[in-house]
Each structure stands twice: as C-alpha cells, then as structure tokens.
Amino acid sequence: MLGETHSVGTLAKISAIKGTAVYDTQSTLVNTFYSANKAAEYFDCSHPTIIKYAKNNKLFKSKWYLS
Predict the structure, then answer these.
(1) Does residue 27 come out as left (phi exceeding 0), alpha (psi in the -120 to 50 range) or beta?
(2) What is the pLDDT of residues 20-51, one digit of tens each?
(3) HSE of 42, CA atoms in CB hemisphere, 13 A
(4) Cys staple from 15: which of 26, 27, 34, 35, with CB 3.0 to 4.6 Å?
C-alpha cells in the first residue's frame, strides 16, 4: 500500500475496528471515537489509559465503560 490511499469504505471499517465506544453504567451507548487518541483528547487523559480501561473492562472515571 506504499503511496496508495484507502477508500472511504475501508477507512470506515478500520475506524469501526480501532475506534473507542463509550457506554454508561446501564450499557447505553454515549459516544464513539474513531481512535483511542481522540477519546484521550476528549477525556483529557493519556492514550494508554484509554487502552487500559478498554482492555480490562473497568469503570472509567466512575461513569463510563470503554470498549
């Protein structure tokens, strides 16, 4: 893929796989981000923190679950 770009459809699929979804404690979808970096910017924390909470399925900031 050197020098080539992905199609819009492919980029959407990649975002769906690599993106971060935010759920409240009742499992209601609150927000989605196309990357963990964007979620980290929104929550004013580091990228590794977002990844850690998403992988361990722990409650983030006592309000949200990340996946």
Answers:
(1) left
(2) 888 888 888 888 888 888 899 999 999 899 98
(3) 14
(4) 34
Distance CA 9, CA 32 (A): 18
Comparing C-alpha atoms, which of 53, 27, 58 is closest to residue 39? 53
SS3 of the chain = CCCCCCCHHHHHHHHHHHCEEEECCCCCEEEEECCHHHHHHHHCCCHHHHHHHHHHCCEECCCEEEC
Q: Are 59 and 25 in contact (CB under 8 A)?
A: yes
Picking from 46, 48, 15, 49, the residue whose alpha carbon sits closest to that of residue 32 is 15
Model pTM above 0.90: no
